[in-house]
Amino acid sequence: MDQVSLVCRRRHLSRRTEQAYRFWIRRYIHFHNRQHPRAVGLNGVVSFVNHLATAGHVAAATQSQALNALLFLYRDVLEVEVGHLAGLRRVQRRDRLPVVLTVEEVASTLGQMVGLSALMAHLLYGAGLRVTECMTLRIKDVDLTAGLIHVRAGKGGKDRTTILPSRLMRPLHRQMLRVAGLHRQDMARGAGFAPLPSALDRKYPGASQSLAWQFLFPSRVVRRCPQTGRLLRWHAS
Which end of the chain is more exposed for a tag (fewer CB within 10 A), N or C? Predict the structure, then answer.
């Protein structure tokens, strides 16, 4: 599983994707009585994914995620050529109308929230951010002067800019000051690093410790990176 994580990080996959892939690969190995995936072969992929569809009664999106994890395992980790998977049964997607809250329901929900969760929720609703986009914002992505938020590598890996609601200017400024204070404390004890894509980290060696690259909503804990030995503070999640 360490090799799976290593390849995920080389491909710059998100932590959430890495966790999902590791989950499905573990289930796959247990399904085949702990045999090595190379010994099971691609027929094992078909039988496992079909099992999810029939006995597991999973949704189409869940089955697709499991299949993507196993394709990643064979193609990218084990470097096995994957062709057509004969006999694969896919769960049919059902078109459903999304459940959308009314303006009154949104206002009522936001009004009952407090603290950092309230700020995040207001940002999701007011700036039109997805949860992952909000969690991975860096200090440098918030332009209080222009009233803009720069979303990096959003859905589809695309960058975009969205408007920052004026009522969130002061709360966000206070949050940025809190992050700056926390960063100073981390620096004083030899930490203060934020995870960066490896290519960027090589090009700008000092960027990982700069305030600009710290997460706007940082984790409460610091973790040591097994590859570099750095004490990293990820985003809250």
Answer: N
DSSP secondary structure, 127-192, as one string: HT--HHHHHT-BGGGEETTTTEEEEPS-GGG--EEEEPPGGGHHHHHHHHHHHHHHHHHHHHTT--
Mean pLDDT for the chain overall = 89
Percent of the chain with pLDDT over 90: 54
CA dist 58 and 224 (Å) reads 36
Question: Which contacts of 39-44 are long-range, i.e. CB under 8 A and separated by 24 or more positions?
Answer: 42/74, 42/80, 42/82, 42/85
What's the domain range around 150?
Answer: 103-173
**For 58-78, what is each residue's pLDDT tens digit?**
888 888 999 999 999 998 899
Alpha carbon separation from 20 to 61, 63, 213 (Å, rounded): 13, 12, 26
CA dist 122 and 189 (Å) reads 33
Whole-angstrom distance, CA of residue 159 vs CA of residue 153: 5
pLDDT greater at residue 121 or residue 205: 121
Give the tens place of pLDDT for each residue, 8-17.
Answer: 888 888 888 9
Biggest CA pair distance of the chain: 59
CB count in 10 Å sphere of residue 24: 21
Domain count, the chain: 3
Token pair for residue 77?
């980790």
Phi then psi for 146, rounded to 5 degrees? -90, -10
Q: CATH number for the domain including 70?
A: 1.10.150.130
